From TrEMBL:
A Pfam family hit: GST_C_2
The keyword Protease belongs to this UniProt entry's keyword annotation: no
Species assigned in the record: Micromonospora eburnea
Span of domain GST C-terminal: 165-292
Keyword terms, alphabetized: Transferase
Protein name as it appears in the record: Putative glutathione S-transferase
Length: 360
């Protein structure tokens, strides 16, 4: 499991970088599961739970994508925190009055303390909160996304893809483990390295894995099988942040994503697939990393670049075959007024695509 920016900030007393050493994660999470049979005491129940996220966070972005692909929007509501936070946790400053309208709280920390008074670990997103009691249930995001595919299957939309097919689970798990260790976590190991040696070790490990992923994807459209799976979701949320944040801010600068032809085409293919790009908010992403990580970026200045309209250019990956949703169908166009608009439809009422540009 992973440790997000707020957790690291809490654990280190305001620092992200420990001078002289490698970045390591505290992977202790609230492992409670919501299950179809209710064996944990938290049964699957539509309308009972609220998913707390930030669009800035790559781990939360995975849950947003999976929820949308599976059509669980009506079964699990979503609370969206703002892109920045302080040491005390994520806040719902995007909502009127700075308070989540369903949970009635200003800070996600309140849901954690409601269940665990004096909770000492990080207040992380994504998290699932039990609405009737206001208590956090889990922040074990890797298991959360798998459970959305398996435990919540009775409430998937008609035509929902199988993101975790049983016959491919061993391979998906293997790919996910390597991608997490070297890529998802690898960019943080570069950015939060406390020594030259630690940084160089992480840097080479990251790009060695990206090279191997490029080789794998040169001849197949998706990471495992011929449809989108959990593995693609987990890689995508790092790739989509690579040029706006990780290349410069985290010093992952051997190449930009746009200079890695296979991965760039693969990422654009997913970005243009309903359920992926329409969950991405580049403004929130950049503001989070550049404004919150003050020991890396002391001024808090947020860069204006890079150019983002190229995410909508043709990718040519259809030639490799594959069917994004298998025997299923794409999710319906979004209707939530908080959904980011497309660059071609500047009105906030247009809810069919990704947010590429936003005036602050």
């Amino acid at each position: 499991m992973t440790e997000s920016s707020d957790e690291i900030l809490d654990r280190t007393g305001g620092r992200y970088v420990e001078p002289g050493g490698e970045f390591t994660r505290d992977q202790r999470y609230i492992a409670t599961r919501i299950t179809a049979d209710g064996r944990t005491g938290w049964p699957v129940e539509p309308g009972r739970y609220r998913l707390a996220v930030s669009r800035a966070c790559p781990w939360a972005n995975r849950l947003i994508i999976v929820r949308r692909l599976l059509g669980l929007e009506d079964a699990i509501s979503m609370a969206v925190a703002g892109p920045t936070h302080d040491k005390r946790s994520w806040t719902f400053d995007l909502d009127p009055g700075g308070r989540d309208p369903v949970l009635g709280i200003e800070r996600l920390a309140d849901a954690y303390f409601k269940r665990f008074p004096g909770y000492e670990r990080g207040i992380t997103v994504p998290a699932i909160v039990d609405v009737p009691t206001g208590q956090v249930v889990t922040n074990d995001y890797a298991q959360m996304s798998l459970d959305l595919s398996t435990e919540w299957a009775a409430y998937h939309r008609e035509g929902a893809p199988d993101l975790y097919p049983e016959r491919l689970r061993a391979e998906i798990d293997e790919v996910n483990a390597a991608v997490f260790a070297d890529v998802n976590n690898g960019v943080y190991r570069c950015g939060f390295a406390g020594s030259q040696q630690a940084y160089e070790k992480a840097y080479h490990r990251l790009f060695d894995r990206l090279d191997r992923l490029s080789e794998r994807l040169a001849g197949q459209r998706y990471l495992v099988g011929d449809t989108i799976t959990e593995a693609d979701v987990r890689l995508f949320t790092t790739l989509v942040r690579f040029d706006p944040v990780y290349h410069g801010h985290f010093k992952c600068n051997r190449q930009k994503l746009t200079e890695m032809p296979v991965l760039w085409a693969y990422a654009r293919d997913l970005f243009q697939t309903p359920g992926f790009g329409d969950t991405v908010d580049f403004d929130h992403i950049k503001r989070h990393y550049y404004e919150v990580h003050r020991d890396i970026n002391p001024t808090g200045v947020v860069p204006l670049g890079p150019e983002l309209s190229n995410w909508l250019t043709p990718h040519g990956r259809e030639a490799l075959g594959g069917r994004p949703f298998g025997d299923g169908t794409p999710p319906h166009p979004r209707s939530n007024p908080s959904t980011p608009p497309t660059p071609h439809c500047p009105s906030a009422e247009c809810e069919k695509g990704p947010l590429l540009y936003r005036r602050r």
